[in-house]
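My convention is simple: the sequence line spells out the residues, with the fold written below as integer tokens. I include a record here:
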Amino acid sequence: MHTFEVKEDFLLDGKPYKIMSGAIHYFRIRPEEWYHSLYNLKALGFNTVETYIPWNLHEQEEGKFDFTEHLDIQKFVYLAQDLGLFVILRPSPYICAEWEFGGLPAWLLNDLDMRNRSSDPLFIEKVANYYEKLFQQISPLQVDQGGPVIMMQLENEYGSYGEDKEYLLAMYNLMRKNQVNVPLFTSDGAWDEAQTSGMFLEKDILSTGNFGSKAKENFTQLRNLHQRHGKKWPLMCMEFWDGWFNRWSEEIIKRDPEELADAVGEVLELGSINLYMFHGGTNFGFMNGCSARGRKDLPQITSYDYDALLDEQGNPTEKFFAVQRKVHALFPDIKQSEPLRKSVLEPAVAQLKEKVSLFSVVELISQHKSSKYPENMEKLNQNYGYVLYRAKISKHSDEEFIRVIDASDRVHVFLNQAKIATQYRDEIGEKIFCHPNEARNQLDILVENMGRVNYGHKLLADTQRKGIRTGVMADLHFICEWDQYNIDFSKLDDIDYKQPWIEGTPAFYRYEFAVENPADTFIDLQKFGKGVVMINGFNLGRFWNVGPTLSLYVPASVLKTGANEIIVFETEGEWASELNFDKQPKYKEIQEG
């Protein structure tokens, strides 16, 4: 067992301790890859790993908790301990992290009277139920109980959101109630307003800063703030941004390795550091987050490579070696070692075996609900992915128009199974002209939730309720009597590929390819439009030909020796008879402006 304290220095077993930490999110990499990433962090010469804990994965349905397999936080932490690493946990209800809804469960949105991330008793009750189960898992991992956890976070960048100190007190009381004994901290931007709003002096909670450069300037601001409040706390950058995340249709963001190493060295000369990220990983499934810029929501891509010290696979980049050299120059006695590298498959091709339109099989792979008016995704218990809305409309003239009122995020509109419009962002709500050719016509609207906002004021916006929120109008009246189909990607084995494939409609494409020795690879999706890819039942995440990425990372652990099944769900009607697997990711050159 150890002791860990926050005095004028961080003290491990009573001796000064410089925290040299890197962020690895266990939920963004497969469990089979945890050792590889943690080993490489130790090889860098660092002594601590930091991770967020996403509420929306551990309690995907209210009252149903999961801490198994890829969500086995105990296994991840003990593996870090076995490698000689200490651990910082950030279990706050909200994590940001460019993660869907900042880690908040989407089912919270069903309570229209509750204010999330506040002292609202309704919200505190939800957090309390989650914390009771979560801390049964993580409280035994603390250093005073023989584990490696030295600190935990109270809240995450709250100073960039609110100033509700009653909320912070409630979080503090819940953590102490659940036997959290290690020091707690807050992390906010280093400037005055963010720190003052987010810090919690009432309980002497350490405040740390988040920044990616200018350590002297930022640490001076942080030190001055501490001193004004009579604190002599150690300085720590809890998120030193060594790269950045990426959004659809925008250029990949890169940072010079040597410049980064110098900036990291500046932090280490003055205080402690947590590299955000050390290994970014992947937003598998539907878990990518979304930026909020003005009135627009800008979803982030599937890859969370982050231009970090390890690439998306977990292999060392030039940044790794530049920072490793800087650490050695500053602390020559720290043990370092060669990092591990993963192999990749030789280029391969998978052949198309079958294809079928979504319209032909939707009843087989969905949960169905009828209602007078269309309901949003959360009310339909479809928190992520897609919903197909269907209604019948009568013909009144040769040319008519409909309007989808108040929907998120992207809609495909079909009349009698022929596409008549795709709308996104500001286009939703505009008139869609059509030419009905039957007395009664089938209207289908496929709505995709592209990811909820993870940062800022829009956490409370009604736009974070996905699907159709208000209704659909024909001429000047709302259409009634809707069938709604929640597409369930766990039921893809039920697809009947003998049913028709309809050109230009959303469809499933099934491919097969054989593997002798599973290894990492990348699926080239340049010939496809938009959708998601499943390999052997595992959802790799979204693709979109607007770039900047035109491929998806495939971890070796989702492949198997022998035949492998790939199912591509594609929504734009763009497909290919072959799927190519390559050694490296594919990128699209984006023209700015």
Notes: The longest strand covers residues 348-357. DSSP finds ten helices and 31 strands in the chain. The chain has three domains: 4-330, 348-357+491-582, 366-487. The two ends are 56 Å apart (CA to CA).
